[in-house]
Design a protein that fits this description.
Length: 217
Protein backbone atom coordinates (compact mmCIF):
# COMPACT_ATOMS: atom_id res chain seq x y z
CA UNK A 1 0.00 0.00 0.00
CA UNK A 2 1.14 3.53 -0.81
CA UNK A 3 -0.02 6.62 1.08
CA UNK A 4 0.40 10.16 -0.27
CA UNK A 5 0.28 13.09 2.16
CA UNK A 6 -0.30 16.63 0.89
CA UNK A 7 0.78 19.43 3.23
CA UNK A 8 0.10 23.12 2.70
CA UNK A 9 3.41 24.40 1.31
CA UNK A 10 3.64 26.84 -1.63
CA UNK A 11 2.32 25.45 -4.91
CA UNK A 12 5.46 26.38 -6.88
CA UNK A 13 7.31 23.62 -5.05
CA UNK A 14 4.81 20.83 -5.69
CA UNK A 15 5.69 17.93 -7.95
CA UNK A 16 3.17 16.79 -10.55
CA UNK A 17 0.61 15.16 -8.23
CA UNK A 18 -1.07 13.33 -11.09
CA UNK A 19 2.08 11.24 -11.51
CA UNK A 20 1.25 9.67 -8.14
CA UNK A 21 -2.46 9.04 -8.73
CA UNK A 22 -1.86 5.53 -10.00
CA UNK A 23 0.53 4.72 -7.15
CA UNK A 24 -1.56 5.99 -4.25
CA UNK A 25 -3.99 3.77 -2.38
CA UNK A 26 -4.78 6.53 0.12
CA UNK A 27 -4.46 10.31 0.04
CA UNK A 28 -4.21 12.43 3.19
CA UNK A 29 -4.73 16.20 3.16
CA UNK A 30 -3.04 18.33 5.82
CA UNK A 31 -4.65 21.68 6.61
CA UNK A 32 -4.53 23.80 3.44
CA UNK A 33 -3.19 20.80 1.58
CA UNK A 34 -6.77 19.52 1.57
CA UNK A 35 -7.77 22.38 -0.72
CA UNK A 36 -4.75 21.68 -2.91
CA UNK A 37 -5.90 18.09 -3.43
CA UNK A 38 -9.49 19.07 -4.16
CA UNK A 39 -8.29 21.61 -6.71
CA UNK A 40 -6.29 18.80 -8.38
CA UNK A 41 -9.38 16.60 -8.54
CA UNK A 42 -8.14 14.32 -5.75
CA UNK A 43 -10.46 13.51 -2.83
CA UNK A 44 -8.43 12.69 0.29
CA UNK A 45 -9.39 9.66 2.35
CA UNK A 46 -8.48 11.61 5.51
CA UNK A 47 -8.12 15.33 6.21
CA UNK A 48 -6.09 16.41 9.24
CA UNK A 49 -5.26 19.72 10.87
CA UNK A 50 -6.36 22.72 12.85
CA UNK A 51 -7.30 24.44 9.55
CA UNK A 52 -6.18 27.84 10.77
CA UNK A 53 -4.88 28.58 7.26
CA UNK A 54 -8.27 28.30 5.55
CA UNK A 55 -11.29 30.58 5.67
CA UNK A 56 -14.59 29.61 7.27
CA UNK A 57 -16.19 29.21 3.83
CA UNK A 58 -13.30 27.02 2.62
CA UNK A 59 -13.59 24.81 5.70
CA UNK A 60 -17.34 24.40 5.25
CA UNK A 61 -16.76 23.48 1.61
CA UNK A 62 -14.23 20.84 2.66
CA UNK A 63 -16.60 19.36 5.24
CA UNK A 64 -19.32 19.08 2.59
CA UNK A 65 -17.06 17.22 0.14
CA UNK A 66 -14.92 14.99 2.34
CA UNK A 67 -15.59 11.61 3.95
CA UNK A 68 -13.64 12.43 7.12
CA UNK A 69 -12.15 15.61 8.61
CA UNK A 70 -10.05 15.31 11.78
CA UNK A 71 -10.04 18.73 13.43
CA UNK A 72 -7.36 19.43 16.04
CA UNK A 73 -6.85 22.54 18.20
CA UNK A 74 -4.24 25.02 16.98
CA UNK A 75 -2.44 24.84 20.36
CA UNK A 76 -0.96 21.33 20.42
CA UNK A 77 2.40 19.62 20.74
CA UNK A 78 2.50 18.10 17.24
CA UNK A 79 2.32 19.86 13.89
CA UNK A 80 -0.52 18.92 11.56
CA UNK A 81 1.93 17.09 9.30
CA UNK A 82 3.33 15.07 12.21
CA UNK A 83 -0.20 13.95 13.12
CA UNK A 84 -0.83 12.88 9.53
CA UNK A 85 2.52 11.09 9.25
CA UNK A 86 1.99 9.16 12.49
CA UNK A 87 -1.47 8.08 11.27
CA UNK A 88 0.01 6.97 7.95
CA UNK A 89 2.75 4.94 9.64
CA UNK A 90 0.05 3.20 11.68
CA UNK A 91 -1.55 1.92 8.46
CA UNK A 92 1.65 -0.06 7.77
CA UNK A 93 2.06 0.94 4.10
CA UNK A 94 5.01 0.09 1.90
CA UNK A 95 5.65 3.73 0.91
CA UNK A 96 4.67 7.15 2.24
CA UNK A 97 5.11 10.15 -0.07
CA UNK A 98 4.92 13.63 1.44
CA UNK A 99 4.28 16.69 -0.77
CA UNK A 100 3.85 20.38 0.03
CA UNK A 101 6.39 20.17 2.85
CA UNK A 102 9.11 22.40 1.37
CA UNK A 103 9.37 26.13 0.66
CA UNK A 104 7.64 28.88 2.56
CA UNK A 105 8.59 29.38 6.19
CA UNK A 106 12.04 28.04 7.04
CA UNK A 107 10.93 26.80 10.48
CA UNK A 108 8.18 24.72 8.88
CA UNK A 109 10.58 23.37 6.25
CA UNK A 110 13.27 22.40 8.78
CA UNK A 111 10.67 20.91 11.10
CA UNK A 112 9.27 18.82 8.25
CA UNK A 113 12.72 17.49 7.34
CA UNK A 114 13.34 16.63 10.98
CA UNK A 115 10.11 14.64 11.08
CA UNK A 116 12.04 11.98 9.17
CA UNK A 117 14.30 11.66 12.21
CA UNK A 118 11.62 11.12 14.84
CA UNK A 119 11.45 7.82 16.72
CA UNK A 120 8.24 6.66 15.02
CA UNK A 121 9.93 6.95 11.63
CA UNK A 122 13.22 5.35 12.67
CA UNK A 123 11.37 2.41 14.19
CA UNK A 124 9.47 1.64 10.98
CA UNK A 125 12.27 2.00 8.43
CA UNK A 126 12.60 -1.75 7.97
CA UNK A 127 9.01 -1.92 6.71
CA UNK A 128 8.16 1.56 5.36
CA UNK A 129 9.91 3.89 2.91
CA UNK A 130 9.14 7.56 3.65
CA UNK A 131 9.93 10.34 1.18
CA UNK A 132 9.56 14.12 1.19
CA UNK A 133 9.23 15.14 -2.47
CA UNK A 134 8.99 18.44 -4.30
CA UNK A 135 9.51 19.45 -7.93
CA UNK A 136 13.32 19.21 -7.67
CA UNK A 137 14.13 17.06 -4.65
CA UNK A 138 13.46 13.73 -2.97
CA UNK A 139 14.55 13.16 0.65
CA UNK A 140 14.49 9.91 2.60
CA UNK A 141 16.11 8.29 5.66
CA UNK A 142 17.87 4.91 5.70
CA UNK A 143 19.23 2.47 8.27
CA UNK A 144 22.48 0.52 7.69
CA UNK A 145 22.28 -1.75 4.68
CA UNK A 146 22.86 -1.95 0.94
CA UNK A 147 20.76 0.06 -1.51
CA UNK A 148 20.60 0.07 -5.30
CA UNK A 149 20.18 3.55 -6.79
CA UNK A 150 18.78 3.88 -10.31
CA UNK A 151 19.79 6.73 -12.60
CA UNK A 152 17.11 9.41 -12.91
CA UNK A 153 17.64 12.23 -15.41
CA UNK A 154 15.24 14.40 -13.40
CA UNK A 155 17.26 13.93 -10.21
CA UNK A 156 20.87 14.33 -11.36
CA UNK A 157 22.55 14.94 -8.02
CA UNK A 158 22.83 12.48 -5.14
CA UNK A 159 23.82 13.53 -1.62
CA UNK A 160 24.24 11.83 1.74
CA UNK A 161 23.94 13.55 5.12
CA UNK A 162 24.58 12.01 8.51
CA UNK A 163 21.54 12.05 10.81
CA UNK A 164 23.40 10.43 13.68
CA UNK A 165 26.69 11.72 15.10
CA UNK A 166 28.50 9.65 12.51
CA UNK A 167 27.87 7.10 9.76
CA UNK A 168 30.61 4.54 9.14
CA UNK A 169 31.53 2.02 6.48
CA UNK A 170 30.10 4.04 3.58
CA UNK A 171 30.84 2.50 0.19
CA UNK A 172 29.63 4.04 -3.07
CA UNK A 173 29.99 2.31 -6.45
CA UNK A 174 28.77 3.47 -9.84
CA UNK A 175 29.16 7.12 -8.82
CA UNK A 176 31.40 9.91 -10.13
CA UNK A 177 33.00 10.12 -6.69
CA UNK A 178 33.24 6.58 -5.29
CA UNK A 179 33.93 5.82 -1.64
CA UNK A 180 35.18 2.77 0.21
CA UNK A 181 34.55 2.29 3.93
CA UNK A 182 34.30 6.06 4.47
CA UNK A 183 33.17 7.86 7.61
CA UNK A 184 30.63 10.70 7.47
CA UNK A 185 30.05 12.93 10.49
CA UNK A 186 27.02 15.12 11.17
CA UNK A 187 27.62 18.53 9.61
CA UNK A 188 30.13 17.24 7.04
CA UNK A 189 29.69 18.06 3.33
CA UNK A 190 31.83 15.12 2.16
CA UNK A 191 28.94 13.44 0.32
CA UNK A 192 27.19 16.45 -1.20
CA UNK A 193 26.44 16.62 -4.96
CA UNK A 194 27.64 13.26 -6.19
CA UNK A 195 26.38 11.90 -9.53
CA UNK A 196 25.61 8.47 -10.94
CA UNK A 197 27.78 7.52 -13.94
CA UNK A 198 25.99 4.25 -14.70
CA UNK A 199 22.40 3.04 -14.95
CA UNK A 200 22.58 1.76 -11.38
CA UNK A 201 24.77 2.66 -8.43
CA UNK A 202 25.15 1.05 -5.05
CA UNK A 203 25.22 2.62 -1.59
CA UNK A 204 26.08 0.65 1.53
CA UNK A 205 26.99 1.59 5.09
CA UNK A 206 27.46 -0.28 8.33
CA UNK A 207 26.51 1.99 11.22
CA UNK A 208 24.39 5.09 11.81
CA UNK A 209 21.37 6.68 10.15
CA UNK A 210 21.75 8.48 6.85
CA UNK A 211 19.66 10.96 4.87
CA UNK A 212 19.61 10.43 1.11
CA UNK A 213 18.80 13.41 -1.09
CA UNK A 214 18.24 13.34 -4.85
CA UNK A 215 18.08 16.74 -6.57
CA UNK A 216 18.11 18.51 -9.88
CA UNK A 217 19.16 22.03 -10.91
Amino acid sequence: MNICIMAGGPSQYWPNLHMYKQRANLWVGVDRGVLALLEQGITPHLSVGDFDSVTKDEFQMMQAQLPEVSLFPSEKDETDLELALNWAIGQKPKNIYIFGATGGRIDHFLGNIQLLQQEAVLHCLDEVNIYIIDEKNSVTIKKPGTYDIQYDSKKKYFSLLSVTKEVTGITLTGFKYPLHQARLTRGSTLCISNELISEYGNVSFEKGIIMMVRSND
